[in-house]
Amino acid sequence: MASERKYHVEQDLKNTVRLRDLVAALPPYTKEFFRGIEPHTSSRTRIAYAYDLRVFFQFLHETNPALKNKDVREITLRELEQLRPADIEEYLDYVKVYVGNDLEIHSNQLQAIKRKLASLRSFYKYFYMRERITYNPVELVAMPKLHEKNIVRLDADEVAELLDHVEAGSGLTKKQQAFHEKSKIRDMAMMSLFLGTGIRVSECVGLNLSDVDFKNSGISIHRKGGKEVTVYFGEEVEEALGAYLEERRQMTPCEGHEEALFLSSQMKRMSVRTVENMVKKYTQTVTTSKNITPHKLRSTYGTALYQETGDIYLVADVLGHSDVNTTRKHYAALEDEQRRRARNAVHLRKD
Length: 351
Known about the structure:
The protein is mainly alpha-helical. The protein has 2 domains: 2-140, DNA polymerase, domain 1 (Orthogonal Bundle), CATH 1.10.150; 156-342, Intergrase catalytic core (hpI Integrase, Chain A), CATH 1.10.443.10. The protein has helices at residues 7-24, 29-37, 43-63, 77-81, 85-94, 110-129, 156-168, 174-197, 201-205, 235-248, 272-283, 294-309, 312-319, 324-330, 332-342, and strands spanning 97-99, 105-107, 212-213, 218-222, 228-232. A hairpin with a 5-residue loop joins β4 (218-222) and β5. It is globular and about 65 Å long.
């Protein structure tokens, strides 16, 4: 039954159905591509690829003279093979601003453009490696260079102030304060989890009651790709979670949401969007100059952990990064700060 499925399984099923709808509007060989990458990608990644490919084929249909009179589904691999790097560069320029199938104007910044090129690279590489095409124009197009951005995070004083606001409701509007009385214990548990474990928002909303283990001070979560791991929490998180679970036991969830740990005011599993709005509501009472999201709370935790331990491999493992270089890229500035501190750590002559 659907009510017995774990959150991540339910999301995968929904994504699978959505992917089928998207692929149905693309050339038949795209089905082979998505079957081929399924073992090593998440359903969310495949959905993102499908959206990107839909835009690419729309671009070809609209702008390529040889393909204008063809239905998108009739564009062949042979025709894709005949494209040149200049065509791919023109596509990257196209996605900066274009009108989608929904007749809405869409725009993309450099990060999104880079992702669209990465999707296209995976697509072409798949058929090139299987010798379905002999020329890969995408490989000859340089990946856009992004400027390194500073990590947006809360400092220690802001974290303490934020938790005070969550607990007391200070800084909120009168309307928000009225709702705060009903949700403050739940909100405190969620904010403590974000700041004390660094879990992703999707991992948080996917938690079930059975995923909390107070005996070992851990929660069982599903990482990207479906891997199940245990993330451990400290005393402050344990206290906030314990208080919420006492309240949670008195609630009567809607059918199909009985196992969900965090419930909305409608007694249903909370959505990612609802949690994002909750985080925004509280963090704006602390700072308006920083756009703090659940992911920025994750960065706040990662920064604090790295400053305390100096162990980039531990931070990568706890945050669930498959490649430590991903972690190092985010915390390079902190590493440089530690190296500067080290310059006086070793004394060449005794005083």
